[in-house]
Amino acid sequence: MGFFRGLGSTAWAYVRSAPGTYVWLAILFVTTVALHRMSPDFEQQFLRQRSTNIHELSDNPVRVLIASAMWIDGGHWVPYAFLYTVFHAPAERWLGTDRWLTVCAAAHVLATLISEGALLKGIHDGIAPPAAVNTLDIGVSYALAGVIGVLAYRIATPWRYPYIAVVLLVYGLPLTETPTFTDLGHFVSVWIGLACYPLVRGRGKAWNPKETLAALKG
């Protein structure tokens, strides 16, 4: 019993060390439960009004940029709970809530505007259909990609460079096949995270995997 009590205390301390991450995750849990209670037709209409598509961005840019980050398209919350714990929580603990939130906001807003701008150009050039102005575009993946990018600076060199290479490969490969505007948004988000280097200055020593391995070996 004492073991589980200690484990629970450790988990709660970890959650409290990254309040922004877990408040956001709690909001996503509530909104995901709400989505599961909607009929499919109503759900699509409801989400489209909170989507950062071209139509909604033209009419209500601030509202939809905020609202779109509070819903998950597809209704699968558990994978995001895992990803938030692996990436968002360490980033918030390292950077502090204000700087972490700045990275999230920059990636979410700028990647949305750039990707939707590319889609608008595609419509004007006849590559995408006019109906694409109402394409459903909600979710938290741009902010997540931005945080994954900025976490590169949490890793000491030379280990940082393979991490960056893998991240760019994962997000860049979709652009070489049949790219969508969201693929572009994810790739841009990673670069926005990498561009947030000024925010990481003075945030302590970078993690060195070699030192960790040596400590485990005793």
Mean pLDDT: 92
Shape descriptor reads globular
* Alpha plus pi helix count: 11
Q: Kindly provide the radius of gyration, computed on alpha-carbon positions and rounded to a whole number of angstroms.
A: 19 Å
Strand content: under 5%
Total count of strands = 0
Structural class: mainly alpha
Q: What is the terminal-to-terminal distance?
A: 30 Å
Topology as a string of helices (H) and strands (E) = HHHHHHHHHHH
Low-confidence stretches: none
**How would you sum up the major sheet?**
none
Give the % helix: 55-70%
Question: In short, what is this structure?
Answer:
With 218 residues, the protein is mainly α. It has eleven helices and no strands.
Written description of the protein model:
The mean pLDDT is 92. The protein starts with a helix and ends with a helix. It has 218 residues and is an all-alpha fold. The chain contains 11 helices and no strands. It is globular and about 60 Å long. Helix 2 (19-36) runs antiparallel to helix 6 (78-95), helix 6 crosses helix 7 and helix 7 (97-124) crosses helix 8 (141-150).
Helices and strands, with pairings:
Layout: H1 2-16, H2 19-36, H3 40-48, H4 54-59, H5 61-67, H6 78-95, H7 97-124, H8 141-150, H9 160-172, H10 181-194, H11 209-217
Descriptors:
11 helices, mainly alpha
